[in-house]
Amino acid sequence: MKRIAIVVQRYGLEVNGGSELYCRQIAERLVKFYEVEVLTTCAIDYVTWRNEYSQGAEVMNRVTVRRFKTDRERVPSDFDRSSRKIFSSKSMFSEGLAWQQEQGPVSTDLLHYLEEHKGSYYVVIFMTYLYATTYFGLHIAPERSILIPTAHDEPPIHLNIFNSLFHLPRVILFLTEEEKKFVQTKFKNSYISSLTVGLGVECPSKKILPNFRKKYGIADRFVLYVGRIDESKGCGQLFDFFLRYVNEGNRKGLKLVLIGKPVFKIPKDPRIISLGFLSDEDKFAAIESADLIVNPSQYESLSMILLEAFSMDTPVLVNGNCEVLKGHCLRSNGGLFYENYVEFCETLDYLLDHDRIRLGMGQNGRQYVERNYQWAVIEDKFRSAIEVVGSSENKRLCRTDREEVGNDGLEREAAL
């Protein structure tokens, strides 16, 4: 069986970041077709990159996971100060490189292993452009590489160190058409083979879910946020908007329920309920019980929680300044979006006051997921990309309506 490697900054059951979860789902799907190894660090916490897992190899759900120690922990205050400085003015390449090393996680052992063993892998897949494992790893093994950038318009991507990075891989796999358009416009790299793959969504039957309201003692209507509770995810603005909304309106009893690891201070208010990290079973029970899901992030490359909400017939309210989230809502008619506080209030009022329309949006979202995000389709796309790269076939991969390539479902654009 052909052996492939996936390089990612963190990996494990305790790691609940969006891109890391996506990586684990893809790895566990690809073991049906390949011998899959994940090259990652011993870190669990993305804030410090502290070594918490044991170094070495283990098998998780048929995937071989090779963990390597990080060279050093990151000091959040120092890194925040460095980030503010470099994003506030035009930086030199050397300054961007120093920032990338501070960003981390830097693992010399992982990079040495990749250098020594890259020739033994059919394909090497790099997950997420932002982190040092991808940046330095892709420079080591570009010849049979696939990059899944999970990119969006955020300050780091405008550092000049990334200009060359997006021209290195053999194939780039995008999560959405919005991501593809942004990357190809910014880096002028449409000549690189690419494919929009998305991800598959698989949710449990509602019949087997626990009674979320009874289990957690929540009787009132509630809006649900699921994910890392972080300023970079728009949580600060969400807390501000929600508390202003309930203080100014007549939404007596309305709650904001949070699921996820907090790395940002949560206001002490009885109308905000933080439940921490929950099992998948309880998470899906919460999604099914919520009036709607809110995603306040301005920077998303896909949003797994939005697709999970749709699959459970639950509509969404999202930050309209994020083209990806806005695009999902427009294509699915499964939710609304806002760009400021006034629009947040108006859209939330509309969803809460119009039960029939809100439920209809949830059903629209489910149909959208069923059409576009089934695992069988996603697996075929990954296999096609891997075989093109691994067999050194010089094909142009693009999800267009242009010239078909053989019977493998791939398509290519005419040469520029």
Number of domains: 2
| Whole-angstrom Rg | 21 Å
Please tally the helical runs, counting DSSP H or I stretches of 4 or more residues: 15
Major sheet: 8 strands, mixed
The number of strands is 16
Name the CATH class of the largest domain. Answer: Alpha Beta
Question: How far apart, in Å, are the first and last alpha carbons?
Answer: 36 Å
Based on secondary structure, the structural category is alpha/beta
Poorly predicted regions: 393-416
Q: Tell me what the CATH architecture of the largest domain is.
A: 3-Layer(aba) Sandwich
Mean pLDDT: 90
% residues in beta strands: 15-25%
Tell me the overall shape.
globular
Using the coordinates shown, work out and report the CATH topology of the largest domain: Rossmann fold
**What topology, given as strand order, has the largest sheet?**
3-4-2-1-5-6-7-8
Question: Quick one: CATH superfamily of the largest domain?
Answer: Glycogen Phosphorylase B
Helix proportion: 25-40%
GO molecular function, one term: glycosyltransferase activity
Keywords: Membrane, Transferase, Transmembrane, Transmembrane helix
Organism: Desulfosporosinus metallidurans
Protein name: Putative glycosyl transferase
Structure notes:
This protein is an alpha/beta fold and 416 residues long. The chain folds into two domains: 3-200 and 375-411, Rossmann fold (3-Layer(aba) Sandwich); 206-372, Glycogen Phosphorylase B (Rossmann fold, 3-Layer(aba) Sandwich). Helices cover 39% and strands 17% of the residues. It contains 15 helices and 16 strands. It has helices at residues 18-30, 76-87, 93-103, 108-117, 132-140, 162-165, 177-187, 212-216, 235-248, 280-289, 304-311, 323-332, 341-353, 355-372, 375-390, and strands at 3-7, 35-41, 56-60, 63-68, 123-127, 145-148, 171-174, 193-196, 222-226, 255-259, 272-274, 292-295, 316-319, 335-338, 404-405, 410-411. Helix 2 (76-87) packs antiparallel against helix 3 (93-103), helix 4 (108-117) runs parallel beside helix 5 and helix 11 (304-311) packs across helix 14. It is globular, with a radius of gyration of 21 Å.
